[in-house]
Amino acid sequence: MEMSHLRKVDPVKHEQKRGEILGAAIRCFIRDGFRGASTTDICTEAGISPGHLYHYFPSKVAIIEAMIDLGLARSTEKFEKILAAPDVIEALLVDIEETSLRFRPAQILNLDGLAEAARNPEFAEIIERHTRAVRRMWSDFLRQAQDRGRVDPGLDPDATANILIALIDGSRAMPIRNPKLDIKQSVEHLRTMLVRFLNPPDAQSVAIKPRIQKAGRPLKLVRKR
Amino acid sequence: MEMSHLRKVDPVKHEQKRGEILGAAIRCFIRDGFRGASTTDICTEAGISPGHLYHYFPSKVAIIEAMIDLGLARSTEKFEKILAAPDVIEALLVDIEETSLRFRPAQILNLDGLAEAARNPEFAEIIERHTRAVRRMWSDFLRQAQDRGRVDPGLDPDATANILIALIDGSRAMPIRNPKLDIKQSVEHLRTMLVRFLNPPDAQSVAIKPRIQKAGRPLKLVRKR
DNA sequence: TGATTATTAGAGCGATCTCTCTAATAAGCT
DNA sequence: AGCTTATTAGAGAGATCGCTCTAATAATCA
Fold first, then answer.
1. What is the 8-class DSSP label of residue B199?
2. B41 CB inside 7 Å of strand D
3. Is domain B64-225 annotated with CATH 3.30.70.270?
4. A37: DSSP letter
5. What is the pLDDT at residue A86?
6. Does the model's pTM come out above 0.70?
7. Which residues of chain B carry a pLDDT beneath 50?
8. Hey, where are the domains in chain B?
């Protein structure tokens, strides 16, 4: 049978609409969690009908998966930028300050994702793969820094990377546990801890300056320019 | 009107049964989360009927609140023990190893609780109050350790306590992110980081011993006996 | 024992969940 | 224009949710 009067789908528009719906879904999931947000909520937020939603996503979990993919891709991109900065530790601290210590609702999804990964093996696989990638990035950086004498060569790069990742995870809980957190002071102490931890033991000792801190800031780990 | 044929409730049995139901509920919440676990699930796990459940708890949120109360009380108790140990850092590391790094399903509830606190102001209040109590315990300890010259006096006790709490939170994510985590190595690096962070800057530098580590362990923070 | 009440079981109500289905409309082709 | 298909709307099916209600049973008193 010959088909003639065809009408093609516009893939650009379709993808754009999909992105809008995904954005609306993310807002709902931030507000109410994976289980708390209903497909009806998502449709209302996106301004579409229930039936229409399923032209873009086959199921609710497909939406969640798409969101996780997007979030992890952004996370990887972020770490790439941090590790490409001239001063990696400072770049990391800036990121922690802006996205973790200052309460950003989107950070809740990381907690949800970890909790879900602890229950759902499929989610766990995704989280583990992403963690492997990020750990690899950090341990590569640490190895280079060790070669240049900037980081204690006695530290295992993988184990150290795991601890840095744990620190980032933990910092996300800080503004939830303490809404009146002193952000500058927290960053200052995090910097002290990181520098003292990573610096070679024979390097000059790093003092924190609790009062005045214009000159004599802690040692920085500077990348080759 | 005179009552004669009274039958009194046995408060001991009642409380015991309540505890059993709460235990069953906790198992369900660990398995499926606050929202994922239904009252029917809890009844099945506890071996009771739906109607019976509401003789012990007025609602599902009441069960969750009772669980949170229990969990936070245990947590406070745990920190009291850690802070009363002869070597606080070692006691903390033992606890982190046993309850966080070795995957304990119950730890998921901490993630759920933090996520819920970020959304629900009532939960947030509970978490914040508990955090204040724990932070107070740690900062008191840190102040004493500073007075005895064991901890860098330049560190702010409250800010340092917040970071220690964040580290505990972050360590809970480690076995989820990496199921094949090298626990001993992780503990060793955590120890190194903590000791280097807390030690006074003029103390002898602390080297990590990645190969052999029988003698020459890192400095310990020893409590007055 | 008989009166009284605590305890238990389980049916099921109203609300809400995810997802499907039909039908009306908009848009691209010749 | 006229045909075909993509897009949209919305009702509602089927399952499950938290929770209530009635009634049967067990336990404790005089």
1. S
2. yes
3. no
4. S
5. 95
6. yes
7. 1-5, 209-225
8. 11-58, 64-225
